[in-house]
Amino acid sequence: MGRSYRVGEVATLTRVSVRTLHHYDRIGLLRPAAHSSGGYRMYGESDLLRLQQILTLRYLGFPLKRIGELLGRPDFDLVASLRVQRQALRERSAELERISTAVGDLVERRLETGAWSWELVIEASQAVGASLTQREETMEAHYTPEQMKQFAAVGETTPPEEIASIEREWTELLAEVRANYDLDPASATARALGDRAEALTARTMRGYEPYPELTEAIGANYEKGAFEGNMLAPQAADFAFLARVKAAR
Amino acid sequence: MGRSYRVGEVATLTRVSVRTLHHYDRIGLLRPAAHSSGGYRMYGESDLLRLQQILTLRYLGFPLKRIGELLGRPDFDLVASLRVQRQALRERSAELERISTAVGDLVERRLETGAWSWELVIEASQAVGASLTQREETMEAHYTPEQMKQFAAVGETTPPEEIASIEREWTELLAEVRANYDLDPASATARALGDRAEALTARTMRGYEPYPELTEAIGANYEKGAFEGNMLAPQAADFAFLARVKAAR
DNA sequence: ATAAAGCCTGACGTAACGTCAGAGTCAAGG
DNA sequence: CCTTGACTCTGACGTTACGTCAGGCTTTAT
To answer: Which of A156, A178, A201 delimits the end of a domain?
Structure first.
């Protein structure tokens, strides 16, 4: 029997306003587990978990209405949802990085040439605009029943130590790659790195194999800089190097 | 004399809705440079630049009213503002990364122990909530008149090739550091890496020296994973290694 | 010159809260 | 046990940043 919390406590703990919690209660998104005799809202621990889901999904751009529908679906799986969230947060982070470089390019060009590059201005606006309009569509795709089920299934087929081992090896490999960006792509050392990368990719994908659409989606995300695990994230330059190696046969 | 655009063009170019542009016109945030004889809004290129500012600042959480005030300030400097924006976007990206790992920790724990860790649930919620409530305050700090002036001054004192050189050296150094995480922190090799890192930090900070508050703020951001340039970003593990080296004297 | 496509201006609607106001509830200390 | 200060409740109304028609001009392409 876990402890219970009053609105104010929940509010300070999760840094949302009391009024927001009232609001979520009224629209039926998060009703407290119980009420005191005097009518106070008493939240339980599972309520906190649900609130976490709500807050993260809201942060990712879902309207509250959709969140309610999602959380109410019979096939909703908390663990799968958290996985999707982590994935989406990483994607969003990479997106911000892209916007940031777009803005950076804009200043740089201005400082170099003394004039504004209107193409870069537009590019920067587009980047920020895209991340606001795309987001709903992108997220909806993640939360289709099939995707959820698939994400839920992955963890069960791949043991955690295999995941950890894969992440460690990626980190090591990337460190070596980064120390050798200037290497001749046709050299034996470079080819060896390329081979290791390919083998690791295969191992990484193993758990997802039964689900072709997922494999594809994950491949795309890799190149965009979004990842499942907490590993050192590969960057565009790493892929560029590996691509050069592959091109050099 | 640059070309001019109609609402629809601006809208598709920057991926905002026509209605949004109408709205910005009505509240006086972005009035088109001219009107056609028939009353069509005709936007000029400088309008696009202003729109970029608006969109980025909005993305960063500023209310439109504050944006209007900001852009109207007599000491407003476009280049400085863009620098601040890039910085802020990076910070936001790093924040997302933190939230993502918080969510990741939560799932992981659940899979390991079979039960939910309420502390981690709260932590995850807090992370999300913080990034929504903090944002205004944090950004306001960036946009004080002094900070703006200082950011504007930086680029003028440090030549671009010095910046490029510094970024390249950081990238090289980090690659080596990453290849040696397991090295004895007291070893000569490790100490050499530590020395190089300190020297580079000093060079990095040179341009900011006249402004102590900026130096401090930048130092803090480094550890949080936010950066000025487009370089390979150091990660927590890198700092951990360098800290170990320093601790080993 | 005649559509098709695009643009205009209200008027009204919506989401997700924020802001009081007035009244009731709780838990600790005297 | 009772008081008191901190907390909570429920409307009612306000706010921000647009979205959604509706009815009617403007442009541009053919």
So the answer is: A156
